[in-house]
Amino acid sequence: MAMTSNKMVLNFVEDMKAMACPDSVIWIDGGEEQLDALRAEACTTGEILRLNDAQLPGCYYHRSAVDDVARVEDRTYICCKHKEDAGPTNNWMAPAEAYKMAGDIFKGAMSGRTMYVIPFSMGAIGSPFAKVGIEITDSIYVVLSMAIMTRVGADVLGMLGDSNDFVRGMHSKCQLDKEKRYILHFPEDNAIWSCNSGYGGNVLLGKKCFALRIASYQGRNENWMAEHMLILGIENPKGETKYVAAAFPSACGKTNLAMLIPPEGYRKQGYKVWTLGDDIAWIRMGEDGGLWAVNPEAGFFGVAPGTNRNSNPNALETTTSGTIFTNVVLKKDKTVWWEGMDKNPPEGALDWKGNPWDPASGETGANPNSRFTAPARNCPCIAPNWEDPVGVPLSAIIFGGRRARTAPLVYQSRDWQHGVFVGAIMASETTAAAAGAVGVVRRDPMAMLPFCGYNMGDYWQHWLNMGEKITKQPKIFNVNWFRLDEEGHFIWPGFGDNFRVLDWIIRRCDGAADAKETPIGFVPLPEDIDISGIDYMISPGRAFDGEALKDILSVDKSLWLEDVASIKEFFAGFGDKLPPEIAGELAELEKKLSV
Ligand code: OXD
Ligand code: MN
């Protein structure tokens, strides 16, 4: 039965029903009873499998189709009236054409199936940041995952009332035909249509589709920002907590940084890290003139491989109850495993495709993009205020990428405008298999390249405008955990030791740490980073030491000049949408590097 009298919601559901022709419609009320019944049903059909209840209570296993295991950027479109508004970094389709094409695909797609209507909120219900979506789907996996990743159910409709301010999300697995797989965004209509996929990133419409692509567009119109950022709090021994948000391209360790455990020396002094979010931040101006951030999600959709007791014990602990695992190894005892969990690949297990897996075969057991979908409240270091409706004030914004040689361990921008430039030139290198080989550079401004719902030139202008409006600007930094030595070994230990860099960042915000000015910005002096107690071998004969630190704080002007050439080429694609301030910063950088 419909759970609302909101005409716009009812009309939307009726329209989708008329198109997809389901046998029945079920509204998701958010109660455990209904979710339990759906879990039971999905277990009966094999859509999910209940895991070992003693070891993983309330946890389930799911496999997606073998050719449907990741986001499909080449099939992801921004469908706005004018192509120019989507910009050179997005695929574009005219809205009428997109509705027609997907409408044909959706026609009758749910016949013989149940249509689920999921009212969901991005942001805590009642928060001034919160926004409502209605996702329609024919997948119980989607319903159960949305119930972890967002707030779902009747309360959401209560918050919406009679308003038309909700995102209309339509998803159907259809036939999982990869030739007809499309992820279509209509920012001007507050709508998302997703067909022929069952992979989380394409079908949990609250996440990348709404909370980044649609929300970035909304934020520009409504004076706020939707960013691909983790949020964490750093508590000092006096019990004061400062907050930072950090943007990294996918697969740079955002979840690990969000949940890091400080090195022992810091812990003994009383430092703590609190997690607020691992992927998305919605940021608004606060009454104090600063920027305040919330995590609009309620769960973590994290990459499983590589997560282990050393790299991220908090994430591991988070996934021990109420979690859905997708495309990992299924052990005989109905627990799970993935590469990098430990050194004991299980015997007699099934791989992510459901086939008996021989660890000696050379094939990975888990898909490299296998995932856990886990409730944020499970996280041992979740901040006590993570659901605070007004969010947390940001002291710093951190950008980062994977650069083998170019970017130093950390540097600080000179001011907000320069910081926006630092974000705009973000890039990551795919590390080539050959040791020491430097990979291909992919520019990924603010880690938003696949997620910005409009022209990135306009997006940079929005960042500049926000900086003008606020009176307390967070300081902007760039970090790079991934500098390599000549043989291709990581020089910096990373993981918990990244706290040492966060410590410098916070001390810079407090005016309590030194730095030296370089052409790219302020770089710490080696003595400004506390490396006491680091116990890390870069390579068999080389321990991390002060020399190594000096090495990764260095700025090689000739490499930067090469980067300038690549940035120029990238910026050229934006034509006159490139804000003159950003062009000016590039010219300034080139000048400073050339003296
Ligand atoms: C993610 C991504 O899944 O950025 O968070 O790809
Ligand atoms: Mn992400």
Structure description:
The chain is of the alpha+beta class. 29% of the residues lie in helices and 23% in strands. The chain contains 17 helices and 33 strands. The longest helix has 17 residues, at 206-222.
Please tally the β strands and state the result: 33
* Uncertain regions spanning at least 5 consecutive residues: none
Q: Give the N-terminus to C-terminus distance in angstroms.
A: 71 Å
Describe the main β-sheet briefly: 9 strands, mixed
Q: How would you sum up the global shape?
A: globular
In terms of DSSP E residues, the strand content is 15-25%
Percentage of residues assigned to helices = 25-40%
Task: Summarize model confidence as the mean pLDDT.
Answer: 96
What's the tally of helices? 17
Instruction: Using the CA coordinates, give the radius of gyration.
Output: 24 Å
Give the class from helix and strand content and strand pairing: alpha+beta
Topology overview:
Layout: H1 7-20, E1 24-27, H2 32-45, E2 49-50, E3 60-62, E4 76-78, H3 83-86, E5 91-92, H4 95-106, E6 114-122, E7 131-137, H5 140-149, E8 151-152, H6 154-160, E9 166-172, E10 182-186, E11 191-195, H7 200-203, H8 206-222, E12 225-227, E13 229-235, E14 241-247, H9 254-258, H10 264-269, E15 272-277, E16 281-285, E17 291-294, E18 299-303, H11 313-318, E19 324-326, E20 329-330, E21 336-337, E22 349-350, E23 356-357, E24 371-375, E25 392-400, E26 410-412, H12 416-424, E27 427-429, E28 441-443, H13 456-469, E29 475-479, H14 499-509, E30 516-518, E31 521-523, E32 537-539, E33 542-543, H15 546-553, H16 557-572, H17 580-594
Parallel strand pairs: 1-6, 3-19, 4-5, 4-10, 7-9, 9-11, 14-25, 25-29
Antiparallel strand pairs: 2-3, 6-7, 6-8, 10-11, 12-16, 13-14, 13-15, 16-17, 17-25, 18-24, 19-24, 20-21, 22-23, 26-29, 27-28, 30-31, 32-33
Helix pairs in contact: 2-5, 12-13, 12-17, 16-17
Bound molecules: oxalic acid and manganese (II) ion.
Manganese (II) ion (MN) binds at residues 228, 250, 279.
